[in-house]
């Protein structure tokens, strides 16, 4: 179709990287692409922290429990950030702003802004032949990550992104059929589409070249949602002044 669509359709997460650091030029394109993402009401309500300190990187890898957090070409942490909105605010200004700073609306706004910037970064990296892996695993111990990055009030870490030269080429992971996620005009029943996908994904899990197993998407989702996880996230989010009202 065109190169952009090819890049998008070729995505797969990369979890083994060559020992090659990103060049300054590559990083510059990645960050500038992230910055050019659409942003709600021009808020630019996110911060990206690149981890160059080996000890911090090791500490983040420990939080995540995943080796590719340490072994990659570069590690970025994407944060929701409403701190800049309070720049130069007097205490009177702040008191008038605090309802908005602390409400669910602006928690969502900042998380969405960060995610859009991150996905632009991912596409930029992939368009240059690099691989990426998002890292929600940094939320295994959000408070520790918050401390390591010295984040002020109204800034919280959301997820990381490992970037680098791919050292493996995993198969592309199938997605739900379009009929399960795209509807016209209103929400539609799509149980059949999920069933078809479960059959397809069972085959994928059985035949893929690594980590093959007997599983379906539905079973995977039920298992995941039955096991409570990261229940401490709410505390940190609210402690940092997000999603309180
Ligand atoms: C916000 C977010 C967080 C993620 N966190 C992790 C993670 O901590 N570790 C990991 O190995 N993959 C992580 N992933 C990657 C997903 O597992 C992956 O995108 C999904 O299984 C689909 O596979 P694919 O990207 O290879 O197509 C994350 C993806 C997203 C969008």
TrEMBL record:
Keywords: Flavoprotein, FMN, NADP, Oxidoreductase. Residues 10-164 form the Nitroreductase domain. Transmembrane segments: none annotated. The keyword Oxidoreductase applies. InterPro entries: Flavin_OxRdtase_Frp (IPR016446), Nitroreductase (IPR029479), Nitroreductase-like (IPR000415). Pfam families: Nitroreductase (PF00881). One of its GO terms (molecular function) is oxidoreductase activity. Belongs to the flavin oxidoreductase frp family. PANTHER family: NADPH-DEPENDENT OXIDOREDUCTASE (PTHR43425:SF3), OXYGEN-INSENSITIVE NADPH NITROREDUCTASE (PTHR43425). NCBIfam families: PRK10765.1. This is FMN reductase (NADPH). The gene is nfrA1.
């Amino acid at each position: 179709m065109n190169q952009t669509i090819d890049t998008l359709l070729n995505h797969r997460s990369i979890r083994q990287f060559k020992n090659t650091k990103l060049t300054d030029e590559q990083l510059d394109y990645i960050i500038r692409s992230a910055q050019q993402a659409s942003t709600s009401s021009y808020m630019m309500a996110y911060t990206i922290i690149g981890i160059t300190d080996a000890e911090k990187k090791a500490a983040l890898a420990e939080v995540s429990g995943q080796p590719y957090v340490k072994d990659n070409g570069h590690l970025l942490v994407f944060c929701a950030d409403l701190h800049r909105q309070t720049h130069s605010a007097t205490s009177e200004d702040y008191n008038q702003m605090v309802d908005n700073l602390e409400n669910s609306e602006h928690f969502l706004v900042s998380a969405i802004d960060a995610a859009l910037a991150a996905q632009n970064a991912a596409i930029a990296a992939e368009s240059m032949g690099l691989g990426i892996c998002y890292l929600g695993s940094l939320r295994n111990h959000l408070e520790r990550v918050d401390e390591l990055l010295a984040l002020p009030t109204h800034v919280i870490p959301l997820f990381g992104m490992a970037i680098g030269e791919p050292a493996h080429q995993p198969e592309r992971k199938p997605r739900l059929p379009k009929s399960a996620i795209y509807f016209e005009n209103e929400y539609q029943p799509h149980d059949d589409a999920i069933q078809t996908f479960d059959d397809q994904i069972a085959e994928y899990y059985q035949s893929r070249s690594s980590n093959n197993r007997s599983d379906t998407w539905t079973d995977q989702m039920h298992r995941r949602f039955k096991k409570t996880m990261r229940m401490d996230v709410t505390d940190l989010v609210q402690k940092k002044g997000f999603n309180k009202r």
